[in-house]
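Margin note: ligand = adenosine-5'-triphosphate.
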Amino acid sequence: MEATQSLLSIKGLSKNFGGVRALDGLDLEVRRNRIMGLIGPNGSGKTTFFNVVTGIYPASAGSVVLEGEDITSFSPQRVYRRGVARTFQRSRLLLPLSILDNITLGDHSRVNNGLMFNLFRRKALTREFERSLEKARELIGIFDPELASNIFDPVETLPMISRRRIEICRALIGHPKLLLLDEPSAGMTHDETFRLIDDILEIKEKIEDLTIIIIEHEMTVMERITDHCAVLNFGEKICEGSYQEVAGDPQVQEAYLGVD
Ligand SMILES: Nc1ncnc2c1ncn2[C@@H]1O[C@H](COP(=O)(O)OP(=O)(O)OP(=O)(O)O)[C@@H](O)[C@H]1O
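Resulting structure:
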C-alpha cells in the first residue's frame, strides 16, 4: 500500500455539547502507514475527535471517511469492524481477569460464539481458544516476553506499563488498520513512557499496514514517534506539519506552550 495514500479523511467535523463547540469544522487527512500526533491544550477537542471517529458520539456536522467509505454515522461496533480500534486515557482493564482474557476481549468481532456452538462444537471451540491464545501470546510477546509467559495471571498485580501494553494488545488483536492511542503515557513514569514508545515503534515495524493517531501531552514523545502532527485549539486545527514545524509555529507556542 502507498504510504502517501489517505486512510482517513475528515471534512468540516464539528461536535457541540450544548453551547460548547468541542470540534469546530475540523479538516484532517491521515495518510496510510503514518504515525500522526494530535497535539493541543486541555479541552481542545482531541478526545472528542476520537469519540466522534469511533462512533461513540454522533457528529454535529461534517464527515469521517475511511478508505473512501463514509463512516460518520456508523455505530462503534461497525467502526470497529471497518478496522478502527482505540485505547482510552483511563485504564479500562478488567483487573481480576487474566492477561489473556483482557486481550481476547478485543477480538469479539471474530470469535465464533453462541450457546449451541459452545455446547456442541467442543473441538472447534478448543481450536478457537488455542488460536486466540497463540495470537495473544504472539502480540504481548512483542511488548514483553515475560507477560507472554504469564498470560494466565490476573492483571491486577501488574504495574502500569504492563497494563498499558495489554490495553494496546487488546486494541491490536482485531487487526485494525487504524489505531487510536489516547495519551498512552498517562499515569506512567518518564522511563516507562519511553519504554512504551519503543514498544509502539516496534509494533509499527512488525505489523504491516498499521496507521496510528496518538494523543500525547509529553512533547518529547511526539518528537520521537510521529511522522506528522496536527495541533488543535478550541476544536479547530491551527497548524500541521512535522513535529519541528509545529513546535516552531508561533500560534502553537502561544496556544500550547504559553509563550507570547
Ligand atoms: N460528554 C461531554 N459532555 C459535555 N462536554 C464535553 C463532553 N466531552 C467533552 N466535552 C467538552 O468538550 C471540550 C473538549 O474536550 P476533550 O475532552 O475532547 O478535550 P481534550 O483536548 O481531549 O482535553 P484533555 O487533553 O484534557 O483530555 C471540553 O470543553 C470538554 O469539557
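The chain has a mean pLDDT of 90.
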